[in-house]
Write a structure and sequence with these properties.
With 501 residues, the protein is of the alpha/beta class. 55% of the residues lie in helices and 10% in strands. α10 (250-265) runs parallel beside α20 (437-464). The chain is globular. The protein starts with 22 loop residues before the first strand and ends in an 11-residue tail after the last helix.
Length: 501
């Protein structure tokens, strides 16, 4: 299997706007249209949202909590009201009230009642819950109201069950490429550094009134997205769902568990083994990629380190690519989505226990407590395995025809600019146990598969010292087109470190 690919051309790469100034981004094999965000665009929001007087945010999970607050702040003074809708008895109501969304001021209410009064309805409740209750939501929509999603999961469910979105309604998506906490934290940093934020993709699935693109772009700008790129709802849920099970969460979980055990068996004490595996990925490796790109991880090593990186990359790329391809097939076929919907019923009675009970995670608190001002060096073995897995996901998405903007955001930028910094502060196990149920279920299913592949295939290959073959993935890494795509993406926003409390 070839190690580098150029995505097939899709018409979704280009779009036009009657309101916002667009730019063209050079990517391997062509160009893509993007919208560079920033607070200087906020005065254009009322024009782009013409006809929208009320925005309903349904749900107060990580995305709902962040998006409702960002939208309210961005739309202050425009006359466009942001309201929150929650299901009866929601445990999140108290927190929504604490952030100013209350029944008394008319900005908090029952989710279906709120949806019935809004011109733009953002359905940000949990994926499985939305799949279960979507008919009630569709029936509540006022004529011509726009339905907005931040994940294409519902499309996958409707496709699998023979359903469809209600006719006559624009259906759009704006999907931040980061967790809700990052969406809010970087938005707040954007008040001091214009353009700080989390990138987002957008999709227009139905556009009966011809205004869906600008409405979507306005939503993304109001969230603080520094770069908005176009995709399709189908591409979005496939890349997002695969990414959660792959390099964004599931693969990280499995790989660092395997590497931790490997370093322990090699004679390291537990804290050192933790720092060389988990803390290395979430700390210096992630920061190097965020700041200088994937190639910089290898370039920053000495000659012996580069040789060790290449051996690890060579051993890890093939097994990782096979796993990512298997995950993609499971998502595309609907198996992963069906599993999430089925789990909703089961977990209502028996919630998932936390994964943080393995010996590795008990070491995390000690390791974090002992961190000094300096940063440990990049471990070449860990770096080679992790970067190979990340690049394998890039290659699979390229082979499946995703645009480069989506590929680098779902496989690299979201990891190093959103998820990994939070894992560094709180641990990978914490992230798995506190992410969305869709991501949590996927990480728990596929993390052990990555761990097994690392223990059974990757590390034994390192021990054998296999010579590189004619299609050496480590040699191909230096000329991989992802470096060009990442460099183009890096020019679209200022360098801002996420503040993680």
């Amino acid at each position: 299997m070839a190690e580098t690919h150029t995505p097939r051309t899709h018409t979704t790469h280009s779009f036009t706007s009657a309101v916002f100034p667009l730019e063209t981004m050079e990517v391997p094999g062509g160009t893509e249209t993007i919208l560079r965000g920033g607070r200087h665009l906020f005065p254009l929001l009322p024009r782009a949202l013409e006809g929208v007087r009320r925005v309903a945010v349904l749900g107060w999970g990580p995305q709902g909590r962040a998006q409702a607050r960002n939208l309210r702040d961005s739309l202050t003074g425009t006359g466009i009201e942001v309201v929150v809708g929650l299901r009866p008895g929601s445990a999140s109501a108290a927190d929504a009230r604490a952030h100013g969304f209350t029944e008394e001021n008319g900005t908090l209410g029952d989710w279906l009642a709120v949806a019935a009064t809004a011109d733009l309805v953002l359905a940000l409740i949990a994926d499985a819950a939305l799949a279960t209750h979507h008919r009630a939501l569709f029936a509540a929509l006022r004529p011509g109201a726009t339905l907005g999603l931040s994940h294409g999961f519902l499309l996958g469910h409707l496709t699998a069950t023979g359903g469809d979105f209600p006719p006559g309604h624009p259906v759009v998506a704006v999907c931040p490429k980061g967790m809700g906490d990052s969406v809010r934290r970087l938005y707040e940093q954007g008040a001091h550094i214009n353009g700080a934020g989390i990138n987002a993709s957008f999709a227009v699935h139905a556009d009966p009134d011809g205004r869906a693109t600008d409405r979507s772009l306005a939503w993304s700008v109001a969230l603080g997205s520094p770069c908005t790129f176009r995709t399709t709802l189908e591409n979005e849920y496939r890349s997002d769902t695969v990414g959660e099970r792959g390099i964004l969460l599931g693969a990280v979980h499995g790989l660092v568990e395997a590497l931790y055990r490997h370093f322990l068996l090699g004679g390291d004490d537990p804290v050192t083994a933790y720092e060389r595996s988990c803390a290395n990925v979430t700390g210096p490796i992630a920061r190097t990629i965020s700041r200088d790109g994937l190639r910089a991880v290898r370039d920053g090593l000495g000659p012996a380190g580069r040789e060790a990186f290449d051996r690890a990359y060579r051993a890890a790329h093939g097994p990782a690519r096979d796993l990512i391809a298997e995950i993609y097939d499971e998502v595309a076929d609907g198996n992963e989505l069906r599993g999430v919907v089925l789990a909703e019923r089961r977990l209502a009675e028996r919630p998932l226990p936390p994964i943080g009970g393995s010996p590795m995670w008990a070491v995390g608190d000690r390791a974090r407590a002992g961190r000094g001002a300096g940063e440990p060096p990049v471990d070449p073995l860990t770096a080679g395995v992790f970067v190979a897995t990340m690049t394998a996901q890039v290659d699979e998405f390229a082979e499946r025809g995703h645009p480069w903007s989506e590929i680098v955001n779902e496989s690299v930028i979201e990891a190093v600019d959103s998820l990994l910094p939070s894992m560094h502060a709180r641990d990978v196990a914490y992230m798995v146990d506190n992410c969305s149920r869709t991501a949590r279920l996927g990480a728990r299913r596929w993390g052990p598969r990555f761990q097994a592949a690392c223990e059974q295939l990757v590390l034994p290959a390192l021990g054998r010292g296999d010579a590189p073959g004619p299609d050496d993935p480590a040699a191909a890494f230096a000329r991989h087109p992802v470096h060009e795509a990442l460099a183009a993406a890096a020019r679209l926003r200022p360098s801002v470190d996420i503040a993680v409390s």
